[in-house]
Amino acid sequence: MDLFEFENTSAQDAELVSKVVDLLSMAIEQHGSASLVVSGGRTPKGFFHLLSQEFLDWSKVTVTLADERWVDADHKDSNEKLVQENLLINEACVARFVALKNSATSAQAGETSIDQDLSAIGRFTLVILGMGDDGHTASLFPGSEALNIGLDMESGRQCLAVQPLDAPHERMSMTLPRLLDSEQIIVHISGENKGNVLAMADGGDDCFELPIRAVLQQTITPVSVYWAK
């Protein structure tokens, strides 16, 4: 794990945008296309706006989400709504978006179709993850009944339905093996609380206690942490 510390989120966002543009541009040059997995929440809004203004061949970029709430795309809690309104604008408006919510009546009923959609993308260029104060990432929550499958590297699953214990809405989450099927992972966090959780994650090895450990402590995919104090 490479840790990059920033005094404020403005500096963090600028450096993260530069890194993302470099990685996507390199992938487009080498492979003719690139893919970017992003996360929801308050933290990435400023980053999304900055990234949306960058000049690169967005028509060759596929954007998707690490997880999604099972709500309509116009719902205030939808991660898709967040991405559409804050990232897929300006120069990035021509990027292709792959949703993690479909017309199925439940996340479980929608798993097969979304699994196929994710499989079609292939290996990701970059996955950007957040982290909760409870150590969850994507919708891999400690204590969740789905966590065992979500962290199973041999599950063969790209995604799975998750019912959080304390958070609203059923979720669709990528599994750990799908998140790690990427050229690079960046954990994007800010604030003292997240810094404390990061230190706790570094100080133990129980991935069921703090699921972010499964990302930080693996050796399959390079991981960097961008933390603004």
- Global morphology: globular
Low-confidence stretches: none
* Sheet having the most strands: 7 strands, parallel
Distance between the termini: 18 Å
CATH class: Alpha Beta
Classify the fold: give the CATH topology.
Rossmann fold
Which band does the percent of strand residues land in? 15-25%
- For the record, the count of structural domains works out to 1
Which whole number gives the mean pLDDT? 97
The spatial strand order of the largest sheet comes to: 1-10-9-6-2-3-5
Enumerate how many helices there are, as a single number.
8
Radius of gyration: 16 Å
Count the E strands: 10
CATH architecture: 3-Layer(aba) Sandwich
Q: Percent helix among the residues? A: 25-40%
Order of helices and strands: EHEHEEHEHEHEEHEHHE
Task: Please give a handful of descriptors for the protein shown.
229 residues; alpha/beta; Rossmann fold; 7-stranded parallel sheet; 3-stranded antiparallel sheet; 35% helix; globular
